[in-house]
Amino acid sequence: MDWQGQKRAEMLMQVLLVASAVAAFLAGYVLADFQLMLLVYAGGVVLTALITVPDWPFFNRNPLKWLDAADAERHPRPQVSAGATAGGKKKSGKNK
């Protein structure tokens, strides 16, 4: 799954969960059945998982271009110094 596919999956997940929550609430309210409301919402969660979790082809429309092994050897990763990982600042405690 590429970066745009992850964004698409996240947006689709949010829309489907909100839609299933609204449908579940309306079904439960109209029929005055709390168990039906939970079942409708659980069905929406399962449907959402089936749509967004697998790596479907429409989530991979913009694949990343990776370097070949020969190119990777010619362009090594920059080394990060120890001071740069800590932000270059020391934490000082307050002594009273």
TrEMBL record:
It is found in: Endoplasmic reticulum membrane. Keywords: Endoplasmic reticulum, Membrane, Transmembrane, Transmembrane helix. InterPro entries: Spc1/SPCS1. Pfam families: SPC12 (PF06645). It is a multi-pass membrane protein. It comes from Eleusine coracana subsp. coracana. This is Signal peptidase complex subunit 1. GO terms for biological process: protein targeting to ER; signal peptide processing. The chain crosses the membrane at residues 12-32, 38-59.
